[in-house]
Amino acid sequence: MVNPMIVYTEGGKTLRKTEAALANLSFEPLLIVSGKQKHPYTSFQVNVWSTSPTALQGILVSPYKNAYDLSSLMIVYVAGACLGADSTLKMQKEIFRNRTPILQAYGMTEIGIVSVTTLSYNKPGSCGILRPGYSCKIESLENGEPLGPEMQGEICIKGPYLMKGYINNPEATAAVYDEDDWFHTGDIGYYDEDCFLYVVDRLKDLIKYKSYQIAPTELENVLKTHPAVGDVAVFGMPHPIDGDHAIAFVAAVRTVSETELLEFVAERVSPNKQLRGGIRFVEFIPHTATGKPKRRALRAQLIAEMQNSKGTPRSWKMAQKLAIRAKKKPPNELLQSHVKWRSS
């Protein structure tokens, strides 16, 4: 198999050695779980499945996830978006009954596959170790200096398979390559003491709250561990004092209140990462072809709705009401004030 990419983009099937591999990017997750006898791909008793976190999340919240035999699956590869450690372990346990490992990889069209987890080198939530020939540095967002282990910054790459440039677009090429030929990915990440790479989020998607930078994926991964949450998108909404307030769009699979989800998040993240913009319940979350939530589209839609209605976002009003009290109250008490005010 020379170039498998057409398989992933067109929903085809391949044979890898004597194993059947399934690659079907645009699909309803229940076809994999509940369509064993009906869906043509599943008749191959798939051994290797390449998929996205969104697809696995859809199966995780399905009432049919344990109704069918998935024991033929030997490996599940995940790419296209970040999958946190807690979500990985939960999916391995509840979908695959701890029989099938979920492995992640990291790469881009411009740089190829940079790192990958294997059966021997695997940490939940990690994208693995660098492939031979590649070099990586984590660069500070503040001063451009290289950072050490466990410190988040922009992922920069050197390697043998990097593109030469964007055709007829020297400005775009110059924007991603620096004077030392490091390719700036626009992704935020870090590496640990064992040199495992972790991807946190896209640089342009970071929520800037006061002096803090918050990764939407971190909050999305927390919410996805709640049994009522089927899918979620988190992004920042403009705030006149604080910069941005994090807001979550949630597609629920059963009845749940905003208060319950706000408290659920508050117990699991630091005070600066609270969902100060609140939660909005929707029927579904739109995604890109690679499974990433369309955060910027949702943000633009919400801003347009507020402008058309000439309304003020509730989080702005809340900030004005609690601006002084926030400095005096502990996070849990502040959250209760937030919830109480929003409910009135």
UniProtKB/TrEMBL annotation:
GO molecular function, one term: CoA-ligase activity
Keyword list, A-Z: Ligase, Peroxisome
GO cellular component: peroxisome
Location in or out of the cell: Peroxisome
Domain called AMP-dependent synthetase/ligase: residue spans: 44-166
Keyword Magnesium: no
PANTHER family: AMP-BINDING DOMAIN-CONTAINING PROTEIN-RELATED, LONG-CHAIN-FATTY-ACID--COA LIGASE
Protein name: Uncharacterized protein
